[in-house]
Amino acid sequence: xxxEFLFWRECPSHPEARALLDEVLAAxxxxxxxxxxxxxxxxxxxxxxxxxxxxxxxxxxxxxxxGASSRPALTxxxxxxxxxxxxxxxxxxxxxxxLLK
Amino acid sequence: MSVGLGTEAPQFDLPGVDGQNHxxxxxxxxxxxxxxxxxNHCPYVQAWENRLSxxxxxxxDRGVRVVAVNSNDAANYPEDxxxxxxxxxxxxxxxxxxxxxxxxxVARELGAERTPEVxxxxxDRGLAYHGAIDDSRDEDGVSQQYLRDALDAVLAGREPAVxxxxxxxxxxxWKGHFHRARESRPRPGERGDGIAPLASDPVRxxxxxxxxxxxxxxxxELGGVVRRGERLRAFASLGLAAGQVEIRAEVARLELxxxx
Lengths: 101, 260
Fold this sequence. Notes:
CATH superfamily of the largest domain in chain B: Glutaredoxin
Strand order of the largest sheet of chain B: 5-4-3-7-8
Radius of gyration of chain A: 13 Å
Number of domains of chain B: 2
Shape of chain B: globular
Oligomer: heterodimer
């Protein structure tokens, strides 16, 4: 399993998202290496189809397919909670679903 | 760096999503004025905007006015354009005024760094509280109502018990802060292309006296706002052309590189 963790340093959500990802991996007993990549420029955001920070892909698939096609940008990414509220990090359920597929 | 407590509110005259212009004087009757550096696109702003509307409604009868100001660069963040502001305000039923600071002057004067970031001014328009709306972006996890507590104190003629907290959110999107690939730029120490590095050591700048003098002027020139990677435009008075200097580290660890 290949896990990519893409982030933009100016958005403060990436440490929380990374910690949540590690937590889910440990809780599920998944021994997978996480490749971190810091997106620094608009060109990189375009090239990597980076819709915002953080973006997490499992075997190339975004953990939140709905938000994956947003315009590439150096920005904080929006995730939606089941009740419709927004969050700057994905939910535990989104991560679990992506990792256990 | 943001303005300090007691600092007077900045003068402004900005278009609002209601189609009217709003100035500092137009809020002259308010017992307290809450300016919130804000925008459309940021998830932190969106997570807090209902709570900001609730505060605006709850304190309206006590003479408090809540004003959100969007200063973001709409050219690079089109979700933050004035038209999109109008749409979002209408769709979400904002209970606060929402103003567009296209010149980014208010953000610069406030030294705002994040969205959302609160600046509460008392009856005399001195800064009484600065920072976060409360202590959790998840409204179910809120235990400290910083802004409400500060408003209660200010309206009672007291100083807030907590007057400064860290604002957690997206960065203000400054114009000229468009991140471009470094490959096309000279790196510190590079020569031979007409580019003269002023300093190259990010920890202990080996800057020329002229460069060090320049560094001392940077915070004042930008109201104290200097960030890693920021391209500066306000250097006319320093004898440099706009966009000629790039900040690649914090002020205390500054390295300056002249760019074409």
